[in-house]
Amino acid sequence: MKSVIIVRNVSVIYPNGTKALKNVSLEVASKDNIFCLMGPNGAGKTTLVKVLSTQLRPAKGYVEVLGYDLYEFPEKIRKEIAILPQEGRPLSEATPWEFVYWLLIARGWSFKEAKQRTITVLKEFDLWKYKDKPCMILSGGTKRRVLISAAVAAEASLTFLDEPTLGLDPYSRRNTWKLLLQLKNESFFFITTNLGLEAEMLASTVGILQEGTLTALGQTNTLKENLPYKYKLILDLNSPSYERIASRENTLIMEMGDKMIIYAKNRDILENIVEEISLNSSEISISVSPTDLEDYFVLSGRINTGGGNYEK
């Protein structure tokens, strides 16, 4: 199976001594067309994107992108990739039309092809009504969609999207997910995110980066299955059953302000907790759901390091 990206023992150390990446090894196969790299802020996601897109040379390690050695053929890689930077901004004076259109011209598209492609992507990303407005007067979320549309418009072999839905409202975020899933056969998308739902919706293979180290890599379903806690329940801390619930075995409790999240290892434990709460109060609001990729992301670090509030 062909690999889009191969990373072996890559480390990046910034001039101030910060070790942004620590011996990261990663192989991304072409079969899924979308790969998500999850991690908290400061984990090294953007640094890795900069390395893969030839913007930053690592201190050590081997990198191959689209079959090209990063050190020998950076110019060939650049011709076949597009990128949405995390902190990118469209030109203030340019309109969405101008920004996308002239970017395509700069990439070598003909005037006719660039015009048609610009029309298509602006309509796909619900930007047509803003096409003649200067980007400086658009909302932050709309500017973000302009950047996404420009990156996608290029139809590059590999497109890097660094936290693409940052600042988008729920409707725009989900519409962006839908479009990326529709477009995944046109380009391979390497997406960074700190949203578990985003990774779960878009990719079947996910990597998790924490403090510059790749701590997990695999199919989303497999990662969730490896989490010992299968269900979660959210309720108020002032629940009459709080003390008894907190002392139960096979649960993990996390306090979040005036709420608490109870993680249960199996359905029987969950049902017993819900029954106890119901018997003691009929007015307590509770939310019950299976654990998801975001729970794996949060809990894997706590379980492995002994962190969290308390575990039973």
Walkthrough of the structure:
The chain is an alpha/beta fold and 312 residues long. The chain has two domains: 3-224, 3-Layer(aba) Sandwich (Rossmann fold), CATH 3.40.50.300; 228-311, Alpha-Beta Plaits. The protein is 36% helix and 28% strand. The protein contains eleven helices and 15 strands. It has helices at residues 45-52, 74-79, 96-106, 111-124, 140-153, 170-183, 196-202, 220-225, 242-246, 267-280, 293-305; strands at residues 3-13, 19-29, 34-38, 60-65, 68-69, 81-84, 158-162, 188-193, 205-210, 213-219, 231-236, 251-256, 259-264, 287-290, 310-311. The strands form three sheets. A six-stranded mixed sheet has the order 6-7-8-3-9-10, with helices on both faces. The two termini are 43 Å apart.
Short description:
With 312 residues, this protein is of the alpha/beta class. It has helices at 45-52, 74-79, 96-106, 111-124, 140-153, 170-183, 196-202, 220-225, 242-246, 267-280, 293-305; strands at residues 3-13, 19-29, 34-38, 60-65, 68-69, 81-84, 158-162, 188-193, 205-210, 213-219, 231-236, 251-256, 259-264, 287-290, 310-311.
What key attributes describe this structure?
312 residues; alpha/beta; Rossmann fold; Alpha-Beta Plaits; 2 domains; 6-stranded mixed sheet; 5-stranded antiparallel sheet; 11 helices; 15 strands
* Helical percentage: 25-40%
Q: Termini, distance in Å?
A: 43 Å
User: DSSP strand (E) fraction?
Assistant: 25-35%
> Could you say which structural class the secondary elements and strand pairing correspond to?
alpha/beta
Known CATH architecture of the largest domain: 3-Layer(aba) Sandwich
CATH class of the largest domain: Alpha Beta
Helical element count? 11
Order of helices and strands: EEEHEEHEHHHEHEHEEHEHEEHEHE
